[in-house]
UniProtKB/TrEMBL annotation:
This is Putative MerR family transcriptional regulator. Signal peptide: none annotated. Residues 11-80 form the HTH merR-type domain. Keywords: DNA-binding. It comes from Ignavibacterium album (strain DSM 19864 / JCM 16511 / NBRC 101810 / Mat9-16). PANTHER family: HTH-TYPE TRANSCRIPTIONAL REGULATOR YFMP, REDOX-CYCLING DRUG-SENSING TRANSCRIPTIONAL ACTIVATOR SOXR. Pfam families: MerR_1. GO terms for molecular function: DNA binding; DNA-binding transcription factor activity.
Amino acid sequence: MFYEMPNDEPVYPISTAAKMLNISVHTLRMYEKENLIIPFRKSTNHRLYSISDIERIRCIRNAINESKISINGIKTIYSMMPCWEYIGCSDDERANCPAYNSHHEPCWAAKGKGTVCEKKECRNCDVYNKFSECSNIKSFIKNLTRVK
DNA sequence: CTTCTCACA
DNA sequence: TGTGAGCA
């Protein structure tokens, strides 16, 4: 018996990930440039994707193809994540955070400009990982709309 | 042989 | 989205 491999282990090179998803490596790189995905980087600067990365991209593709949502639409949805709740920001930190104040880019795209999360690895952050599966997004919205 | 970045008819 | 140059 072998232990089960965690689904967040970065193991697939970009060519393999592309085949699994039936998309081009160029498209994969584009999604990264658009801040939809944060693949792992080896010391050689080569990208590695995990199972959850693949799932995340499947969710993105599904939104684009079936729901006719644009890249910008997806980014807008990501930008609505209540990151300050997960991180535990104070009211003051939140008010001055470029990530919180952007309604067009996900918080992990606002790195490097005085965010509280400056030092954090967004790839390992709950705010980023909560949306790795379509079902997570659904339950997230469900909780938002639940009537008390 | 694969991937990387950057550019573009 | 695709293709190609020029590297590592």
